[in-house]
Design goal:
- It is a single chain.
- The protein is mainly beta.
- Helices cover 10% and strands 39% of the residues.
- It has one domain.
- The chain starts with 6 loop residues before the first helix and ends in an 8-residue tail after the last strand.
Length: 72
């Protein structure tokens, strides 16, 4: 197929998605890191994922924020 090589870039691009309520969703799992503005005051957070999925069944999410923030 003509766009065969695009599978991995598209997969990586879509691991994390913003939600309409200023949140963040991990929609697919792979070792990754995302920086995003979340919550009512658009606080920048960094979320890292450590996993061997699909070869293991453990996911570890590390959330780093400059201050406490609530977001979906």
């Amino acid at each position: 197929p003509h766009n065969y090589g695009m599978g991995w870039p598209w997969f990586a691009q879509e691991l994390w998605l913003a939600t309409p309520d200023n949140g963040l969703a991990a929609v697919m799992y792979a070792p990754s890191e995302v920086r995003a503005k979340v919550g009512a005051d658009a606080t920048e957070v960094t979320v890292s994922t450590d996993t061997a999925y699909p070869f293991g069944d453990t996911l570890t999410f590390t959330v780093r924020t400059p201050r406490p923030v609530a977001f979906p």
